[in-house]
Amino acid sequence: MNDSIKTYLHDHLAGSNFAIHMLESVHEQHKDESLGTFILALTAEIKQDQAVLQEIIDEVGTPVLDVAGVAGWVAEKVSQFKLNRTTHGDLGTFEALETLTLGIKGKVALWKTLTAVSEFDPRVPKRNYLDLIERAEDQFRRAETRRLALAVSAFSAGLPG
Hints:
By secondary structure, the chain is mainly α.
């Protein structure tokens, strides 16, 4: 059997790990604000989605080499430098939310792909992928709204008066 699906699933798991670590960092910087509350709730949802993905991986199997997990860890550590609010203001948070929205769109693609692959690969369990797609689309809308709200403070600072 082709192990491409194993690698694909594991890459998405690494991406979700990156997202959770990034969100935890953003939450720490905004914990006393409404953004912090939003981030905390969204992180809980992403952890639930990650648990579903882990169940699927447990059924399909894992790839032999875990390069994606290491790459995700490295990317997460590098991103923390820019997310520091004291040196970058709201730009780091804005870019974190932008990265998050892109990742959520990737999650939508994952659930759509698994919908298709489950039709011919018996290792991929049948799930209610439509509900997972709708949930991810809702997550995207909420994160995008917050991202755009941050654009004003991220890009208006330092403008000539």
